[in-house]
Design goal:
The structure holds 3 protein chains of 3 kinds. Chain A is mostly helical. Chain A is 76% helix and 0% strand. In chain A, helix 3 runs antiparallel to helix 5 and helix 8 packs parallel to helix 13. Helices cover 33% and strands 27% of the residues of chain C. In chain C, helix 2 packs across helix 3. The chains are: A mainly alpha, B mainly alpha, C alpha/beta. The complex binds adenosine-5'-triphosphate and magnesium ion.
Chain lengths: 304, 292, 251
């Protein structure tokens, strides 16, 4: 374990000495703030488009960070021959793989925390009450809205009144924070699977550019299409249908871990049981990919 | 001399570049009309921006449903009308039911993966309400930016601005922008009229705008093989009500007759005509009553 | 004297597209024995298989046949590498780290406690004369400096056996001399040194025993003086003769 931690420490050190992460963060922040400064119809309460864009950028950046750093790790070690003095020490190849994985994954975690803090600040700076559960807020808008007050507006104004007596407001606030934390957690778990997958790719395909490209296509494909493969399969003729179905059951369903919609649209938090199951699922797949990586790398001849 | 020569070469190359650029530039204008437009988006995306505009228009509808939205894999057929767009017309029981049916796209999960995955999705069909409708506006704005010729962007946005958010001024500005980009659109004129009537309480201007819309409709549609009668009916019926309120009963009747020709439900209009005739008769018997 | 490095019928084949069989034999039935406390020179022309031997000893390459042991432990066990120090042929280290950080990282892998590690790092940096550059990233080092970082990292765990792949390549005469001094000092401390080289003079001056290999086969092994006596010529002539070089040349 000590060895694993030492190796992961080096990975993290490399990541923060290289500047990729800062570039992505600044880019995300810049685009978000730029969009945030645009006024749509003089309405300062509009928040969701900003959340949507910000989260999308965060997802893209996190995938870029995870894939590009992980895919480079082992090929770079071999190309720079830094792997030789390292493996000449009493380090097993398994520890080496675990160290690389852990380093990349932890680095992604740190990056995610920074990103989500930024996201929290952005979305809280917009319509504070607005981000609490859907029905609760609205209020202020309803009052300065049209002059005609129908029953709905009354109801909304009533609920606002209620809010000031603290309880619903604080629960709303708590559910928002819980939502963020769940989103962050699931995102991180997903990146664990991604990192392990890319690590496997980088061992199988030794050219980093190839493994980066393939990983990107594969992971984006899973995120966009993964949950629909069963529907796609139904429309195919037989041999193809069976193949797609098998794929559907084999691939890691990363799209589960994408709960952006629930955060953007202020949905109630996910049950902890489901969160735990998803985490377990991610761990199983991460373990599987790490095992495969080790299996391939175990007896690999390490010369140039 | 030797030390200066790289700079000389650089200077020479720059001069050549400049010369070539100045000779080519006027010609490129003829190559494509992309370069002609000053619009950056248009230049970058070309006609692809229409596709993007469509995407953002849909995104507004997604937003309107708080993320509960069918993907292309869930749709059985191309949805005709988005819910936020249909929401703007008078709520129709039939429409509502159809929408509910369309949005019940999930059905029973086919396998455990799908079943479990639903815990992480938005699974309730809701519409924004209580002023939260504002969240759809940025997407519409972007859509309009990308495709200024898409009329429903303006009308939908204006409807929500006026009806739910009380932003009459912004709605009017946006419609005016739409009108500048689509000077012949009856839809925009119709929406503008509603804004004047309901938002500004200015029936006179509403009437002018609707009359203009009618004229435009006649100019554009009547010659066509399949004129847009739905539009005509909408304008005619609304204008008729306005005329009725203003006491110009005969004009109102003629408008309703016009609408009747194209209405799917002519009996209701006929009933209105009868009512107005009733009123006319009542007025004729008591001519001193104020008209307005 | 105990044998701490031993290979028996070691055979290594690389996959190769050039030869018809699809493999290239890099080592062919190599038997080597290095005893505790000696400085062992491993000589051979380019492509003889020196680096390959070391790669097998360190577990980078798996032998096709035969076996190799360090301290009596099969080289495939990581624990065999606990008491060795290794200097690779071409030295590249994590360029973004400083020499000090690099040494600390390796110290951590050997499980050396912090205080002890600090002490060793100080003395090693002094030994290889890199104290002035200890907190500069390695990417700013010259080749010779990098080579010396390599030497320092090979010594971090105070190893009993040192495996050095051409430790003097790329160093100036002064640097070479220093390396020779270090090797001799290590010997006086009772360490075993197994190093490869092309420098026959160097081997002659520091080695207790030498082995000469060519095309993956052992040609001669023994004390330099014994070999010279046996073949009745100096080491250079002997070397050329063993690798099959004829001065007259048959074209
Ligand atoms: N990865 C590889 N694939 C194929 N052949 C290889 C590989 N590595 C080495 N060889 C071959 O094995 C033989 C031995 O190489 P090795 O590197 O051990 O030589 P060396 O004695 O270290 O030479 P030098 O003095 O030039 O360092 C050479 O013929 C080389 O071409
Ligand atoms: Mg070599």
């Amino acid at each position: 374990m000590n060895n694993v931690l030492a190796i992961s420490g080096i990975v993290i050190k490399e990541l923060y000495r290289r500047k990729d992460f800062y570039v992505l963060f600044v880019l995300t922040a810049l685009i978000t703030l730029l969009l945030g400064s645009v006024s749509f119809f003089n309405d300062a309460k509009i928040a969701r488009y900003l959340k949507e864009v910000c989260l999308l950028l965060i997802w893209i950046s996190s995938l870029v960070i995870a894939i590009s750093t992980t895919a480079r790790q082992i090929p770079a070690e071999r190309e720079n021959r830094t792997i030789f003095p390292l493996l000449a020490k009493p380090v097993t190849r398994g520890q080496f793989i675990m160290g690389k994985f852990l380093g990349c994954w932890l680095a992604c975690g740190v990056a995610l925390v920074v990103f989500y803090l930024f996201f929290g600040v952005v979305s809280e700076s917009r319509g504070r009450g607005d981000s609490s559960a859907a029905g609760l807020s609205a209020t202020a808008a309803a009052t300065d809205a049209s002059s005609k007050t129908d029953e709905h507006d009354h109801a909304a104004a009533g609920s606002e009144h209620h809010n000031e007596h603290e309880t619903p407001e604080t629960t709303g606030q708590r559910s928002v924070v819980l939502n963020y934390v769940q989103a962050l957690w699931l995102h991180w778990m997903m990146l664990g699977v991604v990192t392990a997958m890319v690590l496997l790719g980088s061992v199988v395909l030794s050219a980093p550019s190839v493994s980066i490209t393939i990983s990107f296509i594969g992971i984006i494909g899973i995120l966009l299409l993964g949950e629909h493969l069963n529907k796609v399969a139904l429309r195919q003729p037989q041999p193809l249908q069976a193949i797609i179905y098998t794929g559907y059951f084999l691939i890691p369903h990363l799209e589960w871990f994408d709960i952006r919609d629930r955060v953007i649209y202020d949905q109630p938090a996910i049950a902890f049981g489901d969160c735990g199951l998803a985490t377990l699922y991610a761990i199983v797949y991460t373990g599987l990919f790490l095992f495969l990586t080790w299996f391939v790398f175990r007896r690999k001849t390490l010369t140039l | 001399m030797r030390r200066a020569s790289p700079y000389l070469v650089l200077g020479l190359l720059l001069t050549i570049c400049f010369a070539v650029a100045t000779t080519i530039q006027p010609r490129t204008r003829a190559w494509s009309d992309r370069a002609k437009s000053g619009d950056v988006l248009k230049m970058l995306l070309g006609d692809g921006r229409r596709m993007f505009a469509n995407h953002f228009f849909e995104q507004a509808d997604v937003s309107f449903h708080s993320g509960y939205y069918p993907s292309i894999f869930d749709r059985r057929e191309q949805p005709g009308k988005t819910a936020m767009a249909s929401g703007k017309d008078e709520h129709d029981e039939h429409d509502e039911a159809a929408h509910e049916k369309e949005m019940a796209f999930r059905g029973q999960p086919r396998d455990w993966i799908e079943a479990f995955g639903r815990h992480f999705r938005v699974t309730e069909h809701t519409h924004l309400a209580h002023g939260q409708e504002r969240e759809i506006l940025p997407w519409l704005r972007i859509s309009a930016e990308l495709d200024p010729q898409r009329v429903d962007t303006y009308t939908v946005a204006a409807y929500w601005l006026r009806e739910k958010l009380g932003k009459i001024k912004e709605a009017e500005e946006f419609l005016r922008e739409g009108q500048r980009n689509n000077p012949d659109s009856c839809e925009i004129l119709f929406e503008l009229g509603r804004l004047y009537r309901d938002g500004r309480h200015d029936p006179q201007r509403a009437r002018n705008v609707w009359e203009l819309a009618l004229r435009k409709w006649n100019a554009q549609e009547s010659g066509k093989a399949e004129p847009n009668y739905f539009q005509l009916e909408k304008i005619a019926v609304h204008l008729a009500r306005l005329e009725e309120e203003a006491g110009r009963f005969s004009r109102a009747i003629s408008l309703l007759e016009l609408g009747k020709k194209s209405s799917p439900n002519p009996d209701a209009l006929q009933k209105q005509v009868d009512e107005i005739k009733e009123k006319m008769r009542a007025r004729e018997s008591a001519p001193q009553a104020p008209a307005y | 004297m105990s044998v701490i490095l031993k290979t028996e019928k070691l055979r290594v084949e690389y996959a190769s597209r050039e030869s018809r069989s699809g493999t290239k034999v890099a080592l062919n039935g190599l038997d080597l024995e290095v005893r505790a406390g000696e400085v062992f020179g491993y000589l051979g022309p380019n492509g003889a298989g020196k680096t390959t031997t070391m790669n097998v000893l360190l577990g980078f390459v798996h032998a096709t046949g035969g076996e190799a042991r360090l301290f009596g432990v099969d080289v495939r066990e990581p624990i065999a590498r606990q008491r060795i120090g290794y200097l690779p042929e071409l030295t590249y280290y994590y360029k973004f780290l400083t020499a000090e950080e690099l040494l600390r990282f390796y110290a951590r892998i050997f499980g050396i406690p912090r205080g002890e590690a600090d002490r060793r790092i100080d003395s090693l940096l002094k030994l290889v004369e890199l104290e002035h550059a200890r907190s500069r990233p390695i990417k700013t080092y010259s080749k010779g400096m990098q080579q010396r970082v390599g030497l320092a990292q090979a010594l971090i765990n105070n190893p009993d056996l040192l495996i050095l792949d051409e430790p003097t390549s790329g160093l100036d005469p002064l640097g070479r001399m220093k390396v020779r001094e270090i090797i001799q000092r290590l010997k006086s401390e009772g360490k075993t040194v197994f190093f490869s080289s092309h420098e026959l003079g160097e081997a002659e001056s520091v080695c207790d025993r030498v082995a000469i290999i060519c095309q993956g086969e052992l040609k001669a092994v023994g004390k330099v003086s014994d070999l010279v006596a046996q073949y009745q010529c100096d080491l250079e002539k002997l070397f050329l003769k063993l690798i099959g070089y004829q001065p007259q040349g048959v074209s």
